[in-house]
Specification:
189 residues, mainly alpha, 75% helix
């Protein structure tokens, strides 16, 4: 029972921490701040662009790829936040610290790169790595300089770059695997 009591105590501390972050949002990251509206734009503008630019003949393939990017990038982001490597001082939704970046900007950017490489027979890996470099070495420093993103400890932009590359590789492999499985016809008995 001591083990479960310790676990409950840890979770209670986590709830207090979450409540403190929500109070911070109420005081400093609410709808009256410019940061909130920048994050709303980061959330909505890519989705609007995607609506008009997505190749509807490949919508499920590109959508599956984008969903994979979203899921794995969210996992990576949660890991980084929980380990104290980085955090987002301003948020659209206090309980979802990086929803603008994770749910929209990154997946949409990579989806459009993936679509472009498919439609133009270009090397996906080359252009995805270039996009990852742009996110890690240009976008993240801009977010840091505008206080929309904070890094802690030994984390640097190269770590972020490798995180992006990991996500784009795993998303591509999983998409390729499911695409191949979809093409395999089941045997009739």
């Amino acid at each position: 029972m001591d083990r479960l009591h310790e676990f409950d105590k840890i979770l209670y501390g986590r709830k207090e921490n979450t409540d403190s972050l929500i109070n911070y949002w109420t005081d400093y990251s609410n709808t009256s701040t410019w940061q909130f509206w920048v994050l709303i734009a980061i959330l909505l503008v890519p989705l609007v662009i995607l609506y008009f630019k997505i190749d509807r003949s490949k919508v499920f393939l590109i959508g599956f790829y984008g969903y994979s990017v979203h899921v794995f990038f969210t996992f990576l982001d949660i890991y980084g936040i929980n380990r104290g490597y980085w955090h987002y001082p301003y948020q659209v939704i206090p309980a979802l610290p990086s929803v603008s970046i994770d749910a929209s900007l990154v997946p949409v950017a990579f989806m459009l790169i993936y679509q472009w490489t498919l439609n133009n027979h270009k090397n996906y890996y080359l252009y995805a790595i270039i996009t990852a470099a742009i996110f890690a070495f240009i976008l993240k420093p801009i977010l840091v300089n505008t206080d929309l993103f904070r890094m802690y400890g030994e984390i640097n932009y190269f770590h972020l770059f490798f995180g992006y590359v990991f996500v784009l590789l795993i998303a591509k492999v999983i998409t390729w695997l499911f695409h191949k499985l979809h093409k395999i016809k089941p045997h009739k008995k």
